[in-house]
TrEMBL record:
InterPro entries: DegT/StrS_aminotransferase, PyrdxlP-dep_Trfase, PyrdxlP-dep_Trfase_major, PyrdxlP-dep_Trfase_small. The active site is at residue 187. GO terms for molecular function: pyridoxal phosphate binding; transaminase activity. Pfam families: DegT_DnrJ_EryC1 (PF01041). The modification N6-(pyridoxal phosphate)lysine is found at residue 187. It comes from the Bacteria. Belongs to the DegT/DnrJ/EryC1 family. Keywords: Pyridoxal phosphate. This is Perosamine synthetase. GO terms for biological process: polysaccharide biosynthetic process. The lineage of its organism: Bacteria, Pseudomonadati, Pseudomonadota, Gammaproteobacteria, Lysobacterales.
Length: 371
């Protein structure tokens, strides 16, 4: 009987003795008056990395979006414009607040929001534009910022997948009224789970800080006295301990992601496909190396996924258009979103991935696309 090849995961975290030591310290000592020590340390490390004024660690990236939108007053009757190609976590907070997600088609080059489609979708009810940076790729932030300014809208950045990406010298997540990041176990930097809200707006920071702690305002002297109904979206000290160790390694973690992407790009050059773009003046953190096969190429995504599975390689499909899901209105006119979804695939990428693993994945892609 032939032994099964070693499993290649689509992604997994990089955990070293530093992460386990910090987590053990938090478990042993992070209680009572020390129960926020690693949280505050993590927030400071992340602020320093981004160059942002404020950061609030949260239970998830979705929670960070929810808090920020709630603090902006987004609610019933409002509309928020976002790209049709997205994970549902970006749209869910809009729905939970009683507002309406307005889905528009994406740009064929970046796979993110098409600025022209955004401007065409603006109505008197539009309150914000949600710029989701997909797989490390960046939205056209200058164009979106100009649109938001012209129409008096909030520009929000969902940078859950864009750690390490920069737009003309500024880090993703720092160009909108606020940014949100995710530290899920699949992300470049992980806390096991969790997220963070970042902003340079002092007043918005104070509102989110209050909302994140059951509506209790900073400086309130009365114990257990909330000033409003808030949320429980705080990150735990144990999670933050792992996050601190990862934040201290952030440049190393991003660099490894970039190395893996560049190796894939080398191996797959000459094939009828495109990979994550990196326009002039930008830097892509390459969270998830992705192939988009040319529209006129003979390609069967399910056949490639089956080949991966037979060789013990995890496959991961490109996000479905949100408008194809049962809870949203169908948008068949979003041609680019629907076309990308069926022609694209994420490739495995994790920090201790060996070159032989990258080559093994690439061989299957080459076999599908090179006669």
């Amino acid at each position: 009987m032939t032994a099964m090849a070693s499993r290649i995961y689509y992604t997994k975290p990089s955990i070293t003795p530093r992460e386990t030591a910090y987590a053990a310290d938090a478990a042993a000592n992070g209680w009572g008056e020390h129960c926020y020590d690693y949280i505050h340390r993590f927030e400071a490390l992340f602020r320093e990395h981004l160059g942002s004024r404020h950061a609030i660690a949260t239970a998830s990236g979705t929670g960070a979006l929810h808090l920020g939108m709630a603090a902006l007053g987004i609610g019933p009757g409002d509309e928020v414009i976002l790209a049709d190609i997205n994970w549902i976590a970006s749209a869910a907070p809009i729905v939970h607040l009683g507002a309406t997600p307005v889905l528009v088609d994406v740009d064929a080059f970046s796979w993110c929001l098409d600025p022209a489609a955004v401007e065409a979708a603006i109505t008197p009810r539009t309150k914000a534009i949600l710029a989701v940076h997909l797989y490390g790729n960046l939205c056209e932030l200058d164009a979106l910022y100009a649109i938001a300014q012209r129409h008096g809208l909030h520009l929000i950045e969902d940078a859950a997948e864009a750690l390490g990406s920069t737009w003309h010298g500024r880090r993703a997540g720092t160009l909108g009224v606020f940014g949100a990041f995710s530290f899920h176990g699949t992300k470049t930097l992980t806390a096991g789970e969790g997220g963070i809200f970042v902003t340079d707006d002092d007043a918005l920071y104070e509102r989110v800080l209050t909302l994140s702690n059951h509506g209790r305002a900073r400086g309130e002297t009365r114990q257990f006295w909330p000033e409003r109904i808030g949320y429980k979206y705080k990150m735990s000290n144990l999670q933050a301990a792992i996050g601190c160790a990862q934040a201290e390694r952030v440049e190393e973690l991003v660099a490894r992601k970039r190395d893996i992407f560049e190796r894939y790009a080398e191996l797959l050059s000459g094939l009828p496909l495109r990979m994550n773009p990196e326009p002039s003046g930008t830097r892509n953190g390459y969270w998830m190396p992705t192939i988009v096969v040319d529209d006129d190429a003979d390609f069967d995504r399910e056949k490639l996924l089956a080949a991966f599975k037979a060789d013990n390689i995890d496959g991961r499909v490109f996000f479905w258009p949100l408008s194809s899901l049962p809870m949203f209105t169908p948008r068949p006119q979003h041609r680019i979103s629907h076309s990308l979804s069926r022609r694209a695939l994420n490739l495995p990428s994790y920090h201790d991935m060996r070159d032989a693993d990258i080559v093994r994945v690439a061989r299957h892609v080459i076999a599908q696309l090179r006669p």
